Amino acid sequence: MTTALVRHSLVLAGRSLRKTRRSPETALDAVLLPVIFLLVFTYLFGGAVAGSATEYLQYLFPGILVLTTVLVGQTATGLGIVLDMKNSMFDRLRSLPIGRSAPLVGSVLGDGVRYAVAVLVLFGLGYALGFRVQTDPLSALAAVALSVAFAFSLSWLSVLAAAVLRNENLVATVGFMLPFPLVFGTSMAVPVETMPGWLQTWTEINPVSHAIEASRGLLFGGPVTEEVILTLVWAGVFLAVLGPLAVAAYRRQAA
Fold first, then answer.
1. Quick one: pLDDT at residue 73?
2. Residues 55, 189, 48, 194: is their CA dihedral positive or negative?
3. pLDDT tens per residue, range 19-48
4. CB 214 within 8 A of CB 143
5. Residues 255, 2, 8, 174, CA torsion sign
């Protein structure tokens, strides 16, 4: 049963990738988001926070890496699922002898191309602006993999919203707004010690903070074991909680 579910999910992920290849404009958000965030934060806050845009870019980049992957997954995945529900594609899939959760898993896996585009664009722009990895290529790949895995687990929040709301406008709003308290209540843009006490408390327990600090350590060096473990634990919690809830909501809608 598990093998069949994996096979069916991969087939449907391939369908999602073919849709993206035939309509490359659907991946436009994955190109624009890293460009906008990196440019705005670097040149708007760089001089005030670090004294120079180039120096600030070194501090900022790991946080933008996590932010980009999280937002790309949240918005795109939910919208794709809602559109498939509205055009009756999921109704046709229900008539096939496949697992009920396969369409959802396939949609999430298929959005991997968005993550890849987002990361490539981000690193390309970052290097053009002066960013440099201070560790090694393997550590940089580990930072990317960790950020994508964390974003993948959190994207099930958008899947849950899609299965419950079934409205593209609401899902787009939820998918874009909900990650903001998580992402901006971190050390992404400024050091934690510069924040007010209540925000520091939130930052210390915020799971996205651990993902950012883990990426920062992997890209620039320093102790990362604890932050990597905490990031993976949180990713597992999101998958264990949000995944079953999303599948249960989808089954109720499909009944």
1. 64
2. negative
3. 666 666 666 767 787 888 899 899 888 877
4. yes
5. positive
> Cα separation of 73 and 108, whole Å?
8
pTM above 0.90, yes or no: no
Which helix (H) or strand (E) segment holds residue 134: the answer is none
- The rounded distance, in Å, linking the Cα atoms of 59 and 52 is 11
Q: For residue 118, which of 81, 83, 84, 147 has the smallest C-alpha distance? A: 147
Q: Is 1 helix (H, G, I), strand (E, B) or coil?
A: coil
Tell me how far apart the alpha carbons of residues 35 and 218 are, in angstroms, rounded to a whole number: 22
Which pair of tokens denotes residue 206?
């915020």
Q: State how far the alpha carbon of 149 is from the alpha carbons of 214, 220, 250, in Å.
A: 13, 20, 23
pLDDT above 90: residue 91: no
